[in-house]
């Protein structure tokens, strides 16, 4: 297989597309695009973001995305053994059988704790019976608390083409290229880590409250952390 950079450059030149045009369409900086074609990955962010840029660029050029990502991992991170989560979990348990019992016990304890919390929450909001049998109305839970109980929700609304990558709870990575008028939402339990390629072209809302992206004073935002602490600070404003 040819080098990754050579494939990307060849596909782009065959399509008659300039790097400037790619930058405008994908909202990825010229510096990063040039680094991808030269395979200068040391000039790019962490591997997760390199893969994101490669995936977006390969898809844009109608190249084989899976083949390019596999080549990137094999050539530049050969020491990193890749497992599916199921395989890694199975091997771990096979090597340490005693952990089966430990994990099973922990799961039972967790279920009991969650059941207790659900019971307390249900008791707190159910109508209460008075001494004479009258039903008293249940206190309504504030909307913000209802959202928090379910986790975090991040919504992006684009006014122009924008590239966005979101990592939920440090594990699940998702990227999108939104065009004007389009929107997308992500869910997480505790936090989001966000990259935005064209800040003026997007509005973001964390659990329904607007995120002040302009506070970063950057057109490109890297590693913006949106978590419960950030949400609490928004509620207090």
Please characterize this protein's 3D structure.
The protein has helices at 4-14, 19-26, 30-38, 47-60, 65-76, 85-95, 98-125, 143-150, 228-236; strands at 128-129, 135-136, 152-158, 162-168, 172-178, 183-188, 191-196, 202-206, 209-211, 221-227. The chain has 237 residues and is α+β, with helices and mostly antiparallel strands. It has 3 domains: 4-76, Orthogonal Bundle (434 Repressor (Amino-terminal Domain)); 86-124; 150-236. It is globular. The protein starts with a helix and ends with a helix.
User: Helix share of residues?
Assistant: 40-55%
Strand residue content:
15-25%
How many beta strands in the DSSP annotation?
10
Shape: globular
How would you spell out the order of helices and strands? Answer: HHHHHHHEEHEEEEEEEEH
Strand order within the widest sheet? 6-3-8-9
Global mean pLDDT? 77
CA-atom Rg in angstroms: 24 Å
Q: What's the domain count?
A: 3
Please identify the structural class as seen in this structure.
alpha+beta
Number of helices: 9
The biggest beta sheet is recorded as: 4 strands, antiparallel
Low-confidence stretches: 80-98, 127-148
Head-to-tail CA distance between termini = 55 Å
Question: In a few lines, what is going on in this structure?
Answer:
The chain has 237 residues and is an alpha+beta fold. The protein contains nine helices and ten strands.
